[in-house]
């Protein structure tokens, strides 16, 4: 059983819909991340939160809006997406945001398809 | 800046060895290796900090040459369970862990 849980696992949405991805970690970590994984492309860092404060926004379009209400939960709110946004969205957590000190624990991802 | 991995894919028979390379054009503070099996989450293998240390995990080991900004992952006497996509992640002392495009390893009986 993974310590990082993502829901939903699969999501199909139209370009005008609004939906949200949810991530929950049960590891007591202080940092959480959103990564985008597209076919044949490197994992792309989207957002980093440390102690519920956003510390990194990696030039992500405003149609993606993250929210971190507490250190255990992370959301990615989606609106007016484009077909090229279809991808696997991975959530991860770590003890703290200093990535050189420890590993990232990934969830299994939310597979998003934008029609 | 994302690291470059090579090769893109490798096919092995059980018991064979392989090397996966990861290089960056920028100075690195640390290199991270992960493995992702199809339909599963990426799983951490090891971190190498600058200093040229070598680490091992079972028969999977890695080295980090900070002067060359390169890391290599060594799969020794490969097992079927080693199949998956291997990603290197590089970090330059900030919050960003940049991943390579991955190397797909297929181990056949």
Helix/strand layout:
The complex is a heterodimer of chains A (115) and B (109).
Chain A: E1 4-7, E2 10-13, E3 18-25, E4 31-37, E5 44-50, E6 53-57, E7 64-70, E8 73-79, E9 87-94, E10 105-106, E11 110-114
Parallel strand pairs in A: 2-11
Antiparallel strand pairs in A: 1-3, 3-8, 4-5, 4-9, 5-6, 7-8, 9-10, 9-11
Chain B: E1 4-6, E2 9-13, E3 18-23, E4 30-36, E5 43-49, E6 54-57, E7 60-65, E8 70-75, E9 84-91, E10 98-99, E11 103-108
Parallel strand pairs in B: 2-11
Antiparallel strand pairs in B: 1-3, 3-8, 4-5, 4-9, 6-7, 7-8, 9-10, 9-11
Walk me through this protein's architecture.
Helix content of chain A is 0%, strand content 56%. With 115 residues, chain A is an all-beta fold. Chain A is globular. In chain A, 36% of the residues are buried. Chain B is mainly β and 109 residues long. Helices cover 0% and strands 55% of the residues of chain B. Chain B has no helices and eleven strands. In chain B, strands 2, 4, 5, 9, 10 and 11 form a six-stranded mixed beta sheet that branches. Chain B has a five-stranded antiparallel beta sheet with strand order 1-3-8-7-6, with no helix packed on it. The model of chain B has no long low-confidence stretch (mean pLDDT 90). Classes of the chains: A mainly beta (115), B mainly beta (109).
Rg over CA atoms of chain A: 13 Å
How far apart are the termini of chain B? Answer: 37 Å
Shape of chain B: globular
Mean pLDDT of chain B: 90
Beta-strand content of chain B: over 45%
Low-confidence stretches of chain A: none
Mean pLDDT across all amino acids of chain A: 90
Characterize the quaternary organization of these chains. heterodimer
In percent, how much strand structure appears in the residues of chain A?
over 45%
Shape annotation of chain A: globular
Task: Please give the largest β-sheet of chain B.
Answer: 6 strands, mixed
The computed structural class of chain B is mainly beta
């Amino acid at each position: 059983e993974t310590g990082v849980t993502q829901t939903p696992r699969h999501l199909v949405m139209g370009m005008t819909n609004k939906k949200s991805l949810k991530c929950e970690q049960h590891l007591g970590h202080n940092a959480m991340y959103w990564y985008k994984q597209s076919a044949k492309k490197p994992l792309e860092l989207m957002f980093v939160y440390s102690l519920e404060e956003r510390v990194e926004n990696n030039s992500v379009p405003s149609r993606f809006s993250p929210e971190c209400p507490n250190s255990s939960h992370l959301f990615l709110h989606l609106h007016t997406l484009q077909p090229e946004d279809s991808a696997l969205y991975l959530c991860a957590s770590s003890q703290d945001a200093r990535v050189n000190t420890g590993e990232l624990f990934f969830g299994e991802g939310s597979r998003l398809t934008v029609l | 800046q994302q690291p470059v991995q090579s090769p893109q894919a490798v096919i092995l028979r059980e018991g064979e060895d392989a090397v996966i390379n990861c290089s960056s054009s920028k100075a690195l503070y640390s290199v991270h290796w992960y493995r992702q099996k199809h339909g599963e989450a990426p799983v951490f293998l090891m971190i190498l900090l600058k200093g040229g240390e070598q680490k091992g995990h079972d028969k999977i080991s890695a080295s980090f040459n900070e002067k060359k900004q390169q890391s290599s992952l060594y799969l020794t006497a490969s097992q079927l369970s080693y199949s998956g996509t291997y990603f290197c992640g590089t970090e330059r002392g900030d919050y960003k862990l940049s991943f390579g495009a991955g190397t797909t390893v297929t181990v056949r009986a």
